[in-house]
Amino acid sequence: MIEISDSLKEFCDKQELVRIGYEDAKGNFRVVPVWFAEVDGSYCFGTEANSLKSRSLLHHPGAGWVIDGGENRKYRGASFSGRAERIEDKATRAKTYRALGMKYFESVDHPKFVEIYGQQDDPAAIYFKLKPKTASSWEY
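The chain above was modelled as a monomer; its predicted structure follows.
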């Protein structure tokens, strides 16, 4: 991952959503919030394999994303641009599945997590790794 300060990385890791911007097949730009987790130094997320988001990113992997938060006029965050690459490696896919389950449900066995992502090797779910080329951050 492109270097950001340790304190900003810690802040980003604790946030619930990453907002990902991408171009769909019709050339329309979309921005969607998704759950994410840090896996082996990269931010990763999962989605339905047949969703517009996954189909678009497989066809046009260029993406931008932002992780931000704060309250009462004390905001911080980081904005990235780069690529969303499909995770093909079974070990990395398993790590991503586990990281998402633990972050959002404290278990990969939680019924709601299984409802959303299926079992670890469910072909109806696809996972992406966000690979940044540029990054910027702010704090105010």
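Helices lie at 6-14, 52-59, 90-105, 111-117.
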